[in-house]
Amino acid sequence: MAKLILSMDGLVLKEIPLTKDRTTIGRRPSNDIQIDNLAISGEHAAVVTILNDSFLEDLNSTNGTLVNGQPVKKHFLKNGDVVELGKYKLKYIAEQATSSAEPDYEKTMVLRPGDMRPAATAPGDAIKAGGEPSTPVQATPTAVGAIQVLNGANAGRELELTKSLTTLGKPGVQVAVIARRPQGYFITHVEGPTCPLVNGQQLGTQAHPLKDHDVIQIAGIKMEFFLKS
Questions:
Q1: Which tens digit of pLDDT belongs to each residue from 149-181?
Q2: CB-facing half-sphere around the CA of 86: CA atoms within 13 A
Q3: Which of 50, 13, 49, 45 is nearest to 32 (CA)?
Q4: Closest CA to 49 of 111, 3, 116
Q5: Beta 33-34 vs 22-26: how paired, if at all?
């Protein structure tokens, strides 16, 4: 289970396990992590946790939020990241990062040569999309979604979206996640100064439902989303 370690001036104040889908940080007592300091906004930031991934979002705070010294609005948290709010620091520890023999590259970037199979390859030969195999659950879309890259070095290659959460893009440039839900597939912008495009329209802050043959553009790469029969 991932956790945050709250400290000030090098003194550890507490450890907060990320057991909730949404953990709020701010000066008001209603927050999950209350920091009673005037430099902290009433509702300063939030950490959204989906499965083994966590995303930090600044809630339009007055003094802003830093991660590893850089101001952020949304940020895909990686093991060891340090979130700074005024004089306070929150270190993100992803304990599952040390439990796997191999790093899960698709957590940070799936658009790597070799990570996607050619579209003509039989389904049984598909390359696994990284991470530990998960137990199938009934609450998933009946049709399996996939993306096919339309340009760049991986043009023509395909990735099946069989995981509950697939991360796309380039960390530090533009990152989005595609979530597989009972209602279908949804894409959400999580990192980068600009949001990805879907059919030429820029995404907002909320999860956007994907339809068959939608064209996604992220970090300069165009890809088509489609449902496999």
A1: 998 877 888 888 888 778 888 877 888 888 888
A2: 18
A3: 45
A4: 3
A5: parallel
| pTM greater than the 0.85 cutoff | no
Whether 118 contacts 158, CB under 8 Å: yes
Spatial CB neighbours of 17, under 8 Å, sequence gap ≥ 6: 1, 2, 3
**What b/e sequence results for 173-212 when a residue is b if at least 16 CB atoms lie within 10 Å of its CB, and e otherwise?**
ebbbbbbbeeebbebbbbbbeebbebeeeebeeebbebee
Which two structure tokens, joined as six digits, stand for 51? 């499965």
What pLDDT, in 10s, does the model give residues 36-82? 889 999 999 999 887 778 889 898 899 999 999 999 888 889 899 99
Quick check: 3 and 15 in contact, CB under 8 A?
yes
| H or E element in which residue 19 lies | none
